[in-house]
Amino acid sequence: MYLTRLGGLLAAYQRRDPAARSKLEVFLFYPGVHALLWHRLAHRLYLRKHFFLARWISQRVRKKTGIEIHPGATIGRRLVIDHGMGIVIGETAEIGDDCLLYQGVTLGGTGKDQGKRHPTLGNNVMVGSGARVLGPFKVGDNARIAAGAVVLSEVPPGSTAVGVPARIVRVNGQPVYYADDVDQINVQDPVREELERLARRVKELERALEGRKRSNRKKPA
Questions:
Q1: Peptide bond into 165 cis (omega under 30)
Q2: Does residue 176 register a pLDDT over 50?
Q3: Bridge partner list, 168
Q4: 3-state secondary structure 9-36
Q5: What's the confidence (pLDDT) of residue 206?
Q6: What is the four-CA torsion angle of 36, 41, 45, 46, rounded to 10 degrees?
Q7: What pLDDT sits at residue 19?
Q8: I want to staple 76 with a disulfide (CB 3.0 to 4.6 A). Which of 17, 38, 62, 97 is the partner?
C-alpha cells in the first residue's frame, strides 16, 4: 500500500513537471516529496498526541526544504508541491487529492481564533505562486487561484480567484480544467479590467471637455 501511494505521488510529479525525467530523480531531489513523506510521519505522531516530537520533525523538514507543514494539517493523495520554497500550511488546513501548490503559497489563518482557522482545499485545486489563502473556508473542487492572489472568502467549485483581495471569475460553459493544465498567470483580473475601463472613460471625458473649450474660444465675442 505504501509503495503504491509513493509510486502514485512520483508519477504525479512526472506528469506535471516536464523537468522530471525519472521517478528516482523525483524521489531523491524534489523537496516537495521529502516534505510530504516526513509530514506523513509527523501527522501520525500528532494524532497520537506526541506533539513535541511531531513539531520537531516538521521544523527539521522546514530547515531542510523551506516548506513548513504543521503536523496537524490533513493532506490528501498526490499533492504536488512545485519547488516549494516558502510554502506554509497551517495546523487545521485540509488539502484534497490531486492538488498543486506553487512556491510561496500560504494556507493560513487570519488571527488567534481557536478551532478550525485554516482553509480547506477540495480535490484538483491549483494555487499559484505567492498566493495567500487565509481563513477557515472552503476552496471548491477544480478551483484555481492565480499567482499573487489574496483569498479571504470561499471559492466555489470550478472557479478562478484573482486579485488582491481576490474576486471570483466563473468558468461558465467551459470544461473543467485539470490542475496542471491551467495557466496561473494569464488570467483576467476583474478589478484591473474595471480600472482600465474607468481610465478609458476619464480620457474620453477629458477629450470631450478639451474639445468644448476649443469651440468656446473660437466663438466671436
A1: yes
A2: no
A3: 161
A4: HHHHHHHHCCCCCCHHHHHHHCHHHHHH
A5: 85
A6: 10
A7: 84
A8: 97
Q: Which residues contact 144 (CB under 8 A, 6 or more apart)?
A: 125, 126, 127, 128, 159, 160, 161, 177, 179, 182, 184, 187
pLDDT per position as a tens digit, 105-119: 999 997 767 789 999
Q: Retrieve residue 126's grid coordinates.
A: 491549483
**Contact by Cβ (8 Å): 146, 126:** no
Determine the average pLDDT of the residues in 175-201: 62
For the chain, what percentages of helix, strand and coil (3-state, to nearest 5) are there?
40, 15, 45
> What does the block give as the cell for 69?
507543514
Residue 13 corresponds to which amino acid? Y
187 confidence band (pLDDT: 50, 70, 90) = low
**Are the CB atoms for 160 and 189 separated by under 8 Å?**
no
* C-alpha cell at position 91: 495546523
Side-chain-facing half-sphere of 140: CA atoms under 13 Å: 13
